[in-house]
Specification:
Structural class: alpha/beta
Largest sheet: 5 strands, mixed
Strand order of the largest sheet: 4-3-5-14-6
Low-confidence stretches: none
Number of helices: 11
Radius of gyration: 24 Å
Length: 303
C-alpha cells in the first residue's frame, strides 16, 4: 500500500491544533486542501479517523490508535531529516520563538538583530505573551519560560536564575521609612503582581528559615513593567524580578529593602519538543542567549 506522509502529517496537524482551519493556517494551505487530504487518508485506510460536527472535532477510537503511532513515525522522520541536514553545519530556516512579554522585550528582543547578523540564513518569528502556549500545537521551535515547568513531554535547559527583589523609591523610603523586618510590611503600602502564584503572600528566607507575610496595598497589576513604574514613582514597596529592577537599582531610582533576606529563586528555561537531533537553528539560538545573559550571574543581577 502506497504511503502518503504528507496526508499523515496533515492529519497530525489537525489533531494537534484541533481544527481544519488552524491546521491550514499552520501549514500554509487552504482549509479545503486539508479536508481533502484527510478524507483521502480515511478512504485509503478504510476507517473513520475523525468525528466532525459543526462545533467539535474529535478522534474516533481508530483515530486515537492511529495518531499515537503517527506521532512516533513523524518524530522518527524528523530525526532522520535532522541527522542528514546536521552535516551541512549551516544553521538555517525559520525559527519560531515564544517568550514572556517583559523579559522578551527587555532582554531577548535587543539581541535579535545581532543574532540575525550572525546567522543570516535564519529567519526569526518571535511572539511575546504572558499567556501559556502549547509549544507543539502552536508550532514553536522553542519557548522561554519562567517558574515551574509542567509540560513533561518537553526538554528544558536552564538559561539563567530568576531572582526577585523587594524595593522602593528613595522618595518613598524618605517619607515612610524602610522596613527592618518582614513583619514591618504589614504597615506599608505593598504593590502587587497579580499573575504571581501567591499574590498577597510574600516569602522570605534567612538562615534557612522561611517567613511568610500576608501583605496588602492600593495597587495590583498583571504586568511587571507597569508595577515597576508605580514603585519608581513612589507609590509603595513592590516585589519585582531583578531583570526588570536591575538598571533602576544601578541608577539609584530604586533601593532594595530587607536585603539580608532572600526571596525564592526560580529559573528562566528554554523549552523545546523532545527530539533525538536538536535542530541547529535552535541550538545556536540557545547558545547565543546563554552567552549574552551571562550564565549563573546574569548581567541584570550585577548591580
Amino acid at each position: 500500500m502506497m504511503k502518503d506522509i504528507n496526508a499523515t502529517s496533515i492529519f497530525a496537524a489537525v489533531v494537534e491544533v484541533g481544527s481544519f482551519s488552524g491546521a491550514a493556517e499552520r501549514l500554509g494551505v487552504t482549509k479545503s486542501a486539508v479536508s481533502k487530504r484527510v478524507t483521502a487518508l480515511e478512504a485509503r485506510l478504510g476507517v473513520k479517523l475523525l468525528s466532525r460536527t459543526t462545533r467539535k472535532l474529535s478522534l474516533t477510537e481508530a483515530g486515537q490508535r492511529y495518531f499515537v503511532h503517527v506521532q512516533e513515525a513523524l518524530r522518527a522522520f524528523d530525526d532522520a531529516e535532522f541527522a542528514a541536514t546536521e552535516l551541512q553545519q549551516v544553521p538555517q530556516g525559520r525559527l519560531r520563538v515564544s517568550a514572556p512579554m517583559s523579559f522578551g522585550r527587555l532582554h531577548v528582543a535587543p539581541v535579535i538583530p545581532e543574532f540575525l547578523a550572525t546567522y543570516p540564513q535564519i529567519k526569526v518569528q518571535m511572539d511575546l505573551s504572558d499567556l501559556s502556549h502549547d509549544i507543539v500545537a502552536g508550532g514553536y521551535d522553542i519557548a522561554l519560560k519562567t517558574g515551574e515547568l509542567r509540560e513533561t513531554s518537553l526538554v528544558a535547559r536552564k538559561l539563567a536564575p530568576l531572582n526577585s527583589v523587594l524595593c522602593a523609591s528613595p522618595a518613598y523610603i524618605e517619607q515612610y521609612g524602610a522596613p527592618l523586618s518582614p513583619d514591618d510590611l504589614t504597615r506599608h503600602n505593598c504593590l502587587l503582581y497579580s499573575y504571581h502564584t501567591t499574590v498577597n503572600e510574600w516569602v522570605f528566607i534567612k538562615d534557612g528559615e522561611e517567613t511568610r507575610i500576608e501583605v496588602s496595598g492600593s495597587y495590583q497589576v498583571n504586568n511587571s513593567e507597569a508595577l515597576r513604574e508605580a514603585i519608581v514613582q513612589g507609590a509603595g514597596i513592590g516585589r519585582i524580578p531583578t531583570f526588570i529592577a536591575g538598571e533602576d537599582i544601578k541608577a539609584g531610582r530604586l533601593v532594595p529593602v530587607l536585603s539580608d533576606y532572600k526571596m525564592p529563586i526560580k529559573e528562566i528555561y528554554a523549552v523545546f519538543p523532545e527530539r533525538r537531533y536538536l535542530p541547529m537553528k535552535v541550538r545556536v539560538f540557545i547558545d547565543f542567549v546563554v552567552d549574552h545573559f551571562g550564565g549563573s550571574t546574569p548581567y541584570w543581577d550585577r548591580y
